[in-house]
Amino acid sequence: MQRAHGLLRPGQRVVDLGCWPGGWLQVASQAVGPSGRVVGVDLRGLDPLPLANVRALQGDFSQPELLQALRRTLGGPAHVVLSDAAPRLSGVRVRDRAAEDALLSALEAALPALLAPGGALLAKLLECPEAGAFRRRIGSRFASLRPVRTRATRRGSSERYLLARGYRGEAAAPPPPAAN
Fold this sequence. Notes:
Helix content is 32%, strand content 28%. It is built from five helices and seven strands.
């Protein structure tokens, strides 16, 4: 993904949501270099990585306290938010779709607290109606949206990524109703 899209650059601040087992943290660390900062969060604990510019937090990124800790640890808003987070699938379609919807809603809600204007998002999506609704909801917040796949994605997998660039912030509020 980094070679194909050049998302990460030296000196950037990067958040990695769903960072376990740490592969994206390592790639991001190298790409942003010693002047950059990478902070990951996952429900699972992560063994400390011997990388000076990386910190990992354990917890649920949908919790306001954790979002505050992420931003504090990062030292400001992120230039890039990576989300490899995925719900634990049960095989029960209704339950799995509800879990995907809850995860995507949490990601959407976290963006204003985490992402700097002009920033980028790379998020894992499972192909389902909830992913399409997520794309439509955040579309006005970014200058461009593009679906992408990794070369490592298994053939026939429903896993996709959404690359969004040029964060505009919260969608503009609708105009007030006209007075009669």
